[in-house]
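FORM 12-B: Structure-to-Sequence Request
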């Protein structure tokens, strides 16, 4: 079976529906602050992290049962081969914004990317679902990016009529700013000790800053024209941004992984790099200068 002919929107939407049930069952910060151990990504793993990852892997196991071969790269389980493995990578962050989810702050997301090879340049499909706003961002390489209000769809039952592409949503585009100053920029990994030098560098260059708490959502907002750019103040992992960086690029924006080219930015779980995104190269230069401050 050709992995790229699979109904990835349907797969992701069913995973979203399963995760919504988990969040409904596990309410309150205390109930969500139950740790299971250390995940393969190196962070402490919450029980809800594992349960949300299981929801995605249930869909991947069903896909593999149909004959698909790929390697899943996930924050909690690490790299898991399905079938004969091969070059295809499915990169998963079951909860991007785990701190938000744990503290019942609604802005957290499911991020899924499907790639034909080992780098960011090879990502063919990207999906980010914002559980707070109930919005779905998706992109296919060469076909553009879209936004679909999550409340308007129901997850398809496996084996029924397929969701065939991102044409179901509304096309989105970045919004380059005509003046010298960027109006709104998103900041992630905003620990106080990392933030001050970047904030000083952005003074006079940016009108307002916003901190959401999910790298995937923040980058998707650049693609949707809501933010003029975004930056992470410390290196992020491939699972955080593999899907959203395609959404930005397919919406006409630009991304940077430090000094690495897209083909050099690895999808492996051990990879770490600073991420910056903007509507255009001018905005990206402003953001990268602050990131390097």
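FORM 12-B RESPONSE
SEQUENCE OUT:
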């Amino acid at each position: 079976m050709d992995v790229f002919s699979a109904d990835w929107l349907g797969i992701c939407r069913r995973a979203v529906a399963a995760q919504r049930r988990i969040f409904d069952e596990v309410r309150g910060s205390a109930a969500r602050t139950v740790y299971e151990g250390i995940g393969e990504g190196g962070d402490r793993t919450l029980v809800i992290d594992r349960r949300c990852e299981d929801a995605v892997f249930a869909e991947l196991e069903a896909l593999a049962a149909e004959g698909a071969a790929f390697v899943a790269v996930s924050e909690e389980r690490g790299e898991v081969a399905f079938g004969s493995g091969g070059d295809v990578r499915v990169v998963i962050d079951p909860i991007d914004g785990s701190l938000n989810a744990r503290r019942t702050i609604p802005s957290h997301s499911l991020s899924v990317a499907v790639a034909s090879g080992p780098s960011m340049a090879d990502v063919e499909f990207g999906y980010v679902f914002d559980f707070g706003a109930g919005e779905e961002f998706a992109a296919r390489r060469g076909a553009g990016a879209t936004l679909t209000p999550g409340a308007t769809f129901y997850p398809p039952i496996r084996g029924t009529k397929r969701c065939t592409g991102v044409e179901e949503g509304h096309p989105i585009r970045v919004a380059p700013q005509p003046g010298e100053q960027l109006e709104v920029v998103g900041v992630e990994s905003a620990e106080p000790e990392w933030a001050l030098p970047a904030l000083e560098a952005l003074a006079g260059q940016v009108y307002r800053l916003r901190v959401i708490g999910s790298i995937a959502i923040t980058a998707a907002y650049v693609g949707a024209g809501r933010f003029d750019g975004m930056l992470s103040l410390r290196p992020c992992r491939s699972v955080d941004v593999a899907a959203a960086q395609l959404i930005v690029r397919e919406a006409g924006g630009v991304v940077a992984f430090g000094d690495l080219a897209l083909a050099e930015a690895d999808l492996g779980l051990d990879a770490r790099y600073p991420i910056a995104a903007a509507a255009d190269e001018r905005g990206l230069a402003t953001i990268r200068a602050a990131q390097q401050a």
